[in-house]
Design goal:
Helices cover 34% and strands 19% of the residues. With 520 residues, the chain is of the alpha/beta class. It folds into three domains: 166 residues, Rossmann fold (3-Layer(aba) Sandwich); 236 residues, pyruvate-formate lyase- activating enzyme, CATH 3.80.30; 57 residues, Beta Barrel (OB fold (Dihydrolipoamide Acetyltransferase, E2P)), CATH 2.40.50. Strands 3-2-4-5-6-7 form a six-stranded parallel sheet, sandwiched between helices. The protein binds S-adenosyl-L-homocysteine, iron/sulfur cluster and FE3-S4 cluster. The site of FE3-S4 cluster has 13 residues, from helix 5 and helix 9. It is found in: Cytoplasm.
Length: 520
């Protein structure tokens, strides 16, 4: 599309008649122009300001995804490579894109020199995540020069930011394709446009789209699987870019989720992780029913699959019903990742987390009472604008009080477009770095202590494959999500086995296999 067409596209006014006819068309027959009409001026370039809007319009669920005939087979004899950055949501989106590309005839490769299409599925959560991607784009320039027919695409959360799209348009014109998180199902058409068009193809929707249910997936592995239960986030924590890059909260229908988990169980998967940015808000957007995460977990509890996890929880919406359901145990595992971000109620307030230190601690008490064996882990940000030494110490004391057995810890990174990015900040970077080190020392100490307790114990481990460091050793996780390395026949991969722990390290356990028979 040229500049003139692009302008015209942005000028198309909303017309209910057009909207209707677009909605009536099957998904695969819709064109870029149809979507441009439907999304008004949100068709390229993206805008974080539009992304912030939360409309009341219904979210439609589509079951009619298919690859148009003229695009099927377009990838015959060709290969694709997707590099994934960021969270599990992105990992899973990559599986969907891999599924779509496979249906177009492409085969997967891990060698970039063999690839005919390379996609970077990006993360925008912190500046260093973005720097990595720009570094990679820079590296790929040489490859693109060698292989001019290579299609180089950028997708994921960074594509939703106008500053990123503008930077690519200006400085990295060798990129062929940019698309965002809301239009992954348009990949066939976008790849076709990128192959046959002369200009860079940019299609990013600022506003979230509908839910598309029947997208193909090429899952990584056949033991553990990701299952989306909801998309987007409405929490708008003041530091966070996710509500802008992922749109408003949209829950998948329980019947679709349950069917997917049942299918995975039937295919022999041993573990599912239910995914959402704020899974505790699951179901809040349903208008025709009251059905929350507790209800969903209760249904999934009944499915014959050995292990069910979920991530990520927001303390604010973690309700009693969920605790009651999780306390039943069974396939619902004893591990809760409950990001706290800070131990200071003042900082939490400025972060707009909508709970206090005390409320968080009360919730932890409730969980502990109902699930005495549960492992708790968390996420923490240090060096939020103007964080004082005292406030930081409140974080340290909370970490100790809760006894987290692990934490992802981060230095605050300003994200353009978020309220916190506009705050004056009087905390120098070296102080932030020093706080991170102090925090990590406490977290590592607690993690090591928690691991020590396992020495001599017998645990059940889902054998996931070779250990990362030594191909002769197998590795897997316990119920409480502890990594265990041990020697065992490869035939145990995919089984749940009993292992006696012989040695504890900070982040993993070494053990000896006790029996090869599967433990139920
Ligand atoms: N939805 C999840 C978090 C997703 S992002 C939740 O609310 O728990 C994962 C983690 O990245 C967050 O928990 C937070 O600790 C961190 N994070 C998010 N924005 C950040 C920023 N601007 N700077 C540093 N860390 C950030
Ligand atoms: Fe970001 Fe907060 Fe939403 Fe988590 S809950 S994704 S931290 S806005
Ligand atoms: Fe990153 Fe987007 Fe996930 S910003 S953390 S990839 S939702």
């Amino acid at each position: 599309m040229n500049e003139q067409q692009r302008k015209e596209m942005n000028q198309i006014k909303d017309n209910p008649a057009d909207k209707k006819s677009v909605e009536d068309k099957p998904l695969s027959e819709k064109t870029s122009e149809d979507f441009a009409k439907y999304f008004e001026s949100t068709y390229q370039p993206p805008s974080l300001k539009s992304a912030k809007k939360r409309g009341k319009e219904d979210v439609n669920v589509h079951y009619d995804f298919e690859i148009p005939e003229d695009i099927q087979g377009i990838g015959e004899g060709k290969k694709f490579l997707i590099r994934t950055y960021g969270c599990q949501m992105n990992e899973h989106d990559t599986e969907v894109m891999a599924g779509i590309l496979s249906e177009m005839g492409y085969e997967s490769t891990t060698d970039q020199h063999e690839a005919d299409i390379i996609l970077l599925n990006t993360c925008a959560i912190r500046e260093n995540a973005e720097n990595k991607v720009f570094g990679e784009i820079g590296h790929l320039k040489a490859l693109k020069r060698e292989k001019p027919d290579l299609i180089l695409g950028v997708c994921g959360c960074m594509s939703q930011e106008e500053s990123v799209v503008n930077r690519i348009l200006q400085k990295h014109q060798f990129v062929d394709l940019i698309f965002g998180t809301h239009n992954i199902h348009r990949l066939p058409q976008l790849v076709q446009e990128a192959i046959f068009g002369k200009e860079m193809v940019v299609e990013v929707w600022s506003k979230e789209g509908d839910i598309v249910e029947n997208l193909p997936r090429q899952r990584k592995g056949n033991i553990k699987a990701w299952v989306n239960i909801m998309y987007g986030c409405d929490k708008f924590c003041t530091y966070c870019i996710v509500p802008y890059t992922r749109g408003k909260e949209r829950s998948r229908l329980p019947e679709d989720i349950i069917q997917e988990v049942r299918q995975l169980a039937a295919q022999g998967y041993k573990e599912v992780t239910l995914l959402g940015q704020n899974v505790n808000a699951y179901g809040k957007d349903f208008e025709d029913r009251t059905f929350g995460l507790g209800d969903l977990m209760n249904e999934i509890h009944k499915i014959d699959i050995p292990r069910v996890r979920f991530t990520t929880s927001h303390p604010r919406d973690f309700d009693d019903r969920l605790i009651e359901v999780l306390a039943q145990g069974g396939n619902l595992l004893d591990h809760i990742h409950l990001p706290v971000q800070s131990g200071s109620s003042e900082v939490l307030k400025i972060m707009a987390r909508k709970y206090t230190r005390e409320r968080y601690l009360e919730l932890v008490d409730k969980i502990r009472e109902a699930m005495p064996n549960a492992t708790l882990t968390t996420d923490i940000i240090v060096g939020f604008p103007n964080e004082t030494e005292e406030q930081f110490q409140e974080t340290l004391s909370l970490v100790e009080e809760v006894g987290f057995e692990g934490a992802y810890t981060f230095i605050y990174s300003p994200r353009e477009g978020t309220p916190a990015a506009k705050m004056q900040d009087n905390v120098p970077m070296d102080v932030k770095k020093e706080r991170l080190q102090r925090l990590n020392a406490v977290v590592n100490h607690q993690a090591a202590q928690a691991m020590k307790k396992y020495e001599g114990e017998i645990v059940e481990v889902l054998v996931e494959g070779e250990s990362k460091k030594n191909a002769d050793v197998l590795a897997g996780h316990t119920h409480r999500n502890k990594l265990v390395n041990f020697r065992a026949p490869r035939s145990t991969i995919g089984e749940i086995v009993k292992v006696k722990i012989t040695n504890a390290k900070t982040w993993s356990l070494d053990g000896e296999l006790l029996e090869t028979a599967e433990v139920k």
